[in-house]
Inverse folding.
């Protein structure tokens, strides 16, 4: 298919007739045939780790294309596998447009894991077949639990979470911190770690502190500031946070699917999810030498679009490995996961219909190689359902593979 290959072979043959040493001419001819043959040999990847699908092609530089160096796909064979034991961390990002096969890829990953506990955060109730389904509204959870933090640190985290959920301002956030610290103190919980095992306050008790502070307010400005956070505390006090079902720590044992679809409001759903994510570092705080727990966050932008949510997922991704913890983030767009990507070992991209997403993903997968990036933009927008493009972490190769049916 390459005119330069044909021309080179002909010239090598002519040189062989002009040379007294026939073997030099033969060697020249053979080099023009053998080197391209080696170049075109299918890439084979041995099956190691969790195998996700059949290799179809590898992106390679072309020898020549219209007189310029270019790139193109060549056939590949074998399985595409990921080996967490040899990776920098246990984190993975899956991105693709609706209907491209993201859920199928997550299923292939989870079903291939051995001796690994996982928790799937399922916002739409679509993954019940992956493990024991847990109704999020039935989880025994108090968002004011310390989770190993000091009362002041936890107050800052909770105030930041409430601020992110309701779009509050900095003065309201400070007001919430002060109310929460006082509520902890009234329960006997101080900076003394021996008090951190006491029962935490509830939002009802925080409201009682608010009412007391309002009565003590000495000026209209202070009263206004306190009153500005009251509607949000009342809303949270009426929310479902006192389920009597599964205990929080039990979510990280075995294979669980947290169905959030039954939670009545997005605000409460978000607070449940963030509290569970923060709890993971507390309950899985023992150092481990291998992957033992995986948290899968479907529709990850729902969490990442919140300032506090982005902070906790970034922390999990950067610190989770020493605790044997990995995170899998699933998104329809590239932009929400950009800040987490540097802390992921694997990025897997399915069909992207948004041109901006395709350009960013192409730049990411190409490693900055413009030849690869151009070919990837075209490929990413035309992938079939179940086709995935990824960079092989162990070899640096860019490959396309197909998920198994079902």
């Amino acid at each position: 298919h390459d005119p330069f290959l044909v021309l080179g072979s002909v010239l090598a043959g002519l040189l062989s007739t002009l040379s007294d040493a026939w073997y030099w001419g033969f060697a020249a001819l053979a080099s023009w045939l053998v080197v391209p043959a080696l170049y075109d040999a299918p890439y084979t990847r041995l099956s190691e780790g969790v195998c996700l699908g059949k290799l179809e092609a590898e992106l390679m530089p072309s020898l020549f294309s219209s007189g310029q160096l270019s790139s193109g796909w060549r056939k590949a064979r074998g399985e595409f596998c990921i080996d967490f034991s040899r990776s920098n961390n246990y984190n993975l990002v899956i991105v693709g447009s609706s209907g491209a096969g993201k859920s199928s890829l997550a299923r292939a990953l989870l079903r291939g894991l051995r001796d690994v506990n996982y928790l799937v955060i399922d916002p739409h109730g679509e993954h019940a077949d992956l493990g024991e389904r847990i109704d999020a509204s039935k989880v025994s959870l108090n968002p004011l639990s310390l989770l190993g933090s000091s009362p002041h640190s936890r107050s800052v985290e909770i105030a930041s979470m409430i601020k992110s959920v309701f779009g509050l301002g900095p003065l309201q956030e400070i007001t919430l911190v002060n109310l929460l610290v006082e509520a902890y103190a009234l329960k006997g919980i101080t900076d003394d770690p021996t008090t951190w095992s006491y029962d935490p306050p509830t939002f009802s008790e925080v409201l009682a502190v608010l009412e007391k502070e309002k009565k003590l307010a000495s000026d209209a400005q202070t009263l206004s500031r306190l009153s500005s956070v009251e509607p949000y505390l009342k809303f949270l006090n009426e929310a479902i946070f006192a389920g009597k079902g599964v205990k929080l720590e039990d979510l990280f044992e075995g294979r669980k699917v947290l169905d959030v679809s039954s939670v009545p409001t997005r605000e409460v759903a978000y607070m449940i999810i963030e509290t569970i994510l923060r709890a993971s570092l507390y309950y899985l705080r023992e150092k481990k030498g291998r992957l033992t727990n995986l948290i899968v966050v479907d529709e990850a932008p729902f969490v990442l679009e919140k300032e506090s949510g982005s902070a906790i997922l970034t922390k999990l991704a950067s610190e989770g490995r020493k605790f044997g913890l990995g995170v899998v983030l699933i998104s329809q767009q590239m932009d929400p996961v950009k800040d987490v990507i540097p802390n992921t070992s694997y990025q897997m991209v399915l069909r992207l219909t948004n041109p901006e997403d395709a350009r960013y993903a192409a730049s990411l997968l190409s490693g900055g190689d413009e030849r690869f990036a151009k070919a990837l933009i075209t490929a990413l927008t035309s992938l079939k359902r179940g086709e995935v493009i990824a960079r092989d972490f162990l070899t640096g190769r860019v490959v396309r593979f197909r998920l198994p049916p079902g």
Remarks:
- The chain has a mean pLDDT of 86.
- Residues 3-41 form one domain.
- The chain has twelve helices and twelve strands.
- The CA atoms of residues 137 and 263 lie 6 Å apart.
